[in-house]
Every structure is written in C-alpha cells, then in structure tokens.
C-alpha cells in the first residue's frame, strides 16, 4: 500500500491534520475543491468565514504541538492577530451582569479574521513540511467496510470532466467541513449506523467591519452575551479587534430574534441589546463593508466513536465530525485538539497501526464532548430550538451555570474556573472542583457592577464615539 496520506479539505482542520501526518508518511496530499487565495482573503467554501472567530488558549497550544518549528503565537501576532486576556482585556455583559476585569493574569485568546488565520496556518504548514495541496473534488472513498484504501477524485475537476481517478492512501482524513458527505461515502462502502444529531437554535449571524476610530486602537474586546434563561430569543453583539486597524462587529440572534441585513437595522439591533454599548461604539465609526449574513449555525454531531463498525485507514476531524453554534467560539480549538490526538496516535504506532482510526475517533470525541455540552445545554433553552428540549439534567446544569456565572461577576476564583473551561485548557469538570464549588455557593463577594468596567480613558473614548441621537 502507498505510504501516502490524503486529507480532504484545506481549511484549518485539514491543514493541521496534514501537519500531524507529515512526519508519519512519505507523502501528504491535501485535496481542496475551492480556489485557495494567495493571501488572507475570504473563500467561498467557508460560510462562517466573514463572522467573528476566537482562537482559545487550548487551541493555540495544540497548534504549537502540531506545526514543527513554528511559534504559533509569534506567527499569528506577526500576521496581524490580536492577543486578548480573558481576565483583563475584555468587557463582557452576561445574563447575570457585568464581568469584572482583574489584574490577575488569565488565559489569552487570539482574534483576527478567519481568512487571516486560515492563511497564516496554511503558510506555516506548507513552509515547514512537505505537504502539497491539490485542487480536487472527492467523489467517494475506495476500499471496503473493513478498510479505506484511498479516495475517488473527479479527474479534470473544474473542466467539466465526468471521469474519475483513484488516489491510494494508507490513511484518509475527512476534514471537508460542515458540508461533509462522510455518511454517504461510508454507506457506499457498506458502513452504516453512524448516529447523527442536530440541535438548531435558528441562530443568524450578521457582521459588518468598521475602521477603528482614531484613539480607540486599544479599546477592549466588547461583548453583550445572549441570555439563554429569559424564555425569549437570544440576542448578542460583539466588537472584535482584527488585523488592519479594523473592528469586526458580529451580531447573533436565535429563531425569532434574528439580526437584520440592512445597515440602519443593524445599528438599531445593537442599540436594542440588553446593554447598548456595542451600538454606542459603532455609531461613531466608519463602516468598511456591507452587512454579511449567514445561517449555517446549527450544532451537528456525528458519533463516529460510537459506531459499531469503523474502517481502518479513515479518520474524521473538525467540522466534518462536529459543528457548533459559532456564538461559543469553540470550533477552531476543537479542530486543533482533534488534530493533536491524531499526531499523538501516529507517534505511538505509525499511520498503518491496527486500530489507529478507532483510537483517534475516540480521542477526538473528548474535546467534542466538552464543546457540545457547553453549546447544546444553552441552545436547548431558547424558544424554537429544533432537535432538542431541555430535560431535568439540563435544568440542573442551567441552575448551576447561572449561579456560577453570577459568582464570577464578583469572584476571581469563580471567574478563573470559567476562563479555564472557556479557553479549552481543561474540561467542564473544572467547574466542579472544590474551589469552584465553594465560590459558586458563596456567591459574588463584590457587589454587581452598575456600568461597564471601563477605565476613565475608555469611558472618554465611548463618549466621543457615541453618536446615538445626534
């Protein structure tokens, strides 16, 4: 058998999987349907690409382990990304009030456009490995129910040709994203019984990019979070610093509370959020783009790790395995953590080791479990959500989460536990450790903040930018 590995999809998950494979096989070929841009530009096959994305600390740590010889933090900063402390660099309104900003150091996240992040990771992988990217439309898998031996690719893709050719591989990784046809491909080989679940809150994203006003270059990331416990549609907004001295302003609303696509309605929506700070900031900022709207936001999970039969030589990662409501900022980090599982299993036994694919799917399910629990436990609370209703366990989790969040508005101990889980440096069990439990039961030792936690300079910037009613 060929010592070649094939990765389907050249997005973030695909390039990280390719990096993981690069030291374990003789050749790694990444097949991508889209034309890939030469720089940090949006591409058609990424429906959420124009909206806000967050790379959490856990995802960055996984990337550092995957891409040989590259300090990913320095690489992303050099490309133009922003590094933001969850403890001090963010102004956040929650269902339980304002989070305080602490002097204590906490986990950090990176913000930039998705186009920049994908391009920066792709450039790093291609520069440091022998991975090659080819344009190709994968029509199916080759092999049988016991082993996948390669992929079937449309020959002359893009020229209208209907001919197909087979590309042999010792290992195939499906990282083709939200639109993956993995269940169809497996079915054609005689593999069935992979359960799939969808939980859809009907969330709609609307995003517009603005020029950062003069003097506001260091204004903190600002977010008004949705309230899943109010028995009404969730509505949220975020001002996210990205490369090129720009603000990416992303709004999100669940079924019945969707943000509009017109500029005037966009601003009205921000001012109608539970706190109008996002609208006040952008009312005096110069828009650089139209409003971009996307509806590809449902949580979809394929339980590959629980399938009764799973073929050797085939792995599913990234959005092809599970997608999450993007409001929670987990998808990129989950993809990186899944690729790290692949890398570690490859180091243990090599690409052709018996049971490798099954072990990778089970390992990749762990970060998926954590992200899925966080997203779905909140999404089922919104009215009109399809595919799930809150049960007794969901209500217990919601009650604890609300109490923990309330404590975190005035307790550094409770806030630190939330940061650790949100940043994906640890799993949800962190919220049940004795220190977090005690802080949750005790409640916030500091009184709730009546106003956004801004410095005097930041308050002055907000006043200067606030053109509402003028």
TrEMBL record:
Presence of keyword DNA-binding: no
TM stretches of this protein: none
Pfam family, one: FAD_binding_3
Keywords tagged on the record: Monooxygenase, Oxidoreductase, Signal
Annotated SUPFAM superfamilies: FAD/NAD(P)-binding domain
Endpoints of the signal sequence: 1-24
Name the record gives this protein: FAD-dependent monooxygenase
Organism: Streptomyces griseicoloratus
């Amino acid at each position: 058998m060929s010592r070649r590995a094939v990765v389907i999809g050249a997005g973030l998950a695909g390039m990280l999987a390719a990096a993981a494979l690069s030291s374990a096989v003789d050749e790694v070929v990444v097949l991508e349907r889209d034309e890939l841009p030469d720089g940090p530009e949006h591409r058609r096959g990424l429906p959420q690409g124009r909206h806000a994305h967050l790379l959490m600390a856990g995802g960055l740590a996984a990337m550092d382990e995957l891409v040989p010889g590259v300090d990913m933090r320095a690489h992303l900063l050099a490309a133009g990304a922003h590094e933001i402390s969850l403890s001090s660099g963010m102004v956040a309104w929650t269902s339980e009030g304002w989070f305080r900003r602490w002097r204590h150091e906490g986990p950090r996240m990176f913000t930039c456009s998705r186009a920049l992040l994908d391009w920066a990771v792709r450039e790093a992988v291609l520069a440091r490995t022998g991975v090659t990217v080819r344009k190709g439309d994968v029509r199916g898998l080759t092999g049988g129910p016991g082993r996948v031996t390669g992929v079937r690719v449309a020959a002359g893709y893009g020229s209208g040709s209907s001919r197909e050719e087979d590309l042999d591989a010792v290992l195939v990784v499906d990282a083709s994203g939200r639109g993956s046809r993995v269940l169809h491909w497996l079915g054609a080989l005689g593999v069935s019984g992979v359960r799939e679940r969808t939980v859809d809150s009907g969330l709609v994203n609307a995003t517009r990019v603005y020029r950062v006003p003069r003097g506001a270059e260091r204004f903190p990331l600002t977010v008004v979070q949705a309230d899943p416990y109010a028995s009404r549609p969730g509505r949220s907004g975020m001002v996210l610093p990205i490369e090129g001295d720009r603000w990416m302003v992303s709004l999100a609303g669940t079924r019945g509370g969707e943000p509009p696509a017109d500029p005037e309605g966009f601003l009205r929506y921000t001012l109608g959020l539970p706190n109008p700070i996002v609208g006040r900031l952008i009312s005096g900022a110069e828009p650089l783009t139209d409003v971009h709207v996307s509806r590809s936001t449902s949580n979809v999970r394929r339980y590959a790790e629980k399938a009764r039969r799973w073929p050797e030589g085939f792995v599913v990662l990234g959005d092809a395995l599970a997608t999450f409501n993007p409001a929670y900022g987990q998808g990129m980090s989950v993809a990186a953590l899944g690729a790290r599982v692949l890398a570690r299993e490859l180091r243990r036994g090599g690409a052709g080791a018996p049971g490798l694919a099954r072990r990778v799917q089970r390992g990749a399910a762990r970060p998926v479990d954590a992200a899925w629990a966080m997203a779905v436990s909140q999404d089922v609370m919104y009215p009109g959500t399809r595919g799930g209703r809150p049960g007794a366990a969901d209500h217990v989790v919601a009650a604890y989460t609300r109490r923990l969040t309330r404590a975190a508005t005035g307790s550094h101990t409770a806030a630190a536990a939330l940061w650790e889980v949100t940043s994906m440096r640890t799993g949800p069990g962190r919220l049940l450790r004795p220190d977090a439990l005690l802080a949750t039961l005790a409640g916030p030792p500091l009184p709730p903040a009546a106003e956004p936690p801004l410095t005097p300079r930041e308050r002055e910037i907000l006043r200067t930018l606030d053109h509402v009613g003028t």
